[in-house]
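Quick question, first post here. What does this chain look like in 3D?
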Amino acid sequence: MIERIAFTVYPVTDMKRARRFYEEELGLTLTTRPHDVWVEYDPPGGCFALTTTMKPAAGGGGGVIAFEVEDVDALTEKLRAGGTTVKMAPIQTPVCRMAVVADPEGNAVLLHQLTRKQT
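> Answer (accepted):
Ran it through. Tokens below.
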């Protein structure tokens, strides 16, 4: 029986480039670096890892990780201005606002902003 998701991992070919994107562009804080081929980040809600021990999917991307952010539009624009590929511009759904960008390896990163209920 599954108890919980242990972690989400993205394969990368250039760890330094990937770490720069996730740490400097998205603001994740490195929490575990057992060796040079695996690093982990522990944002609230789960563990996200990067590794050079797996082969990335052909053409980039395979899975998608979604990060909850404060302001989807502002972060998407900041990333676009810095050269990040925006795969899907921000859209509004009945429950959230979201956009999709590509990390340096072509992996999809969904930026998610839950719509706060008016009280």
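Helices lie at 15-25, 72-81.
The chain has a mean pLDDT of 87.
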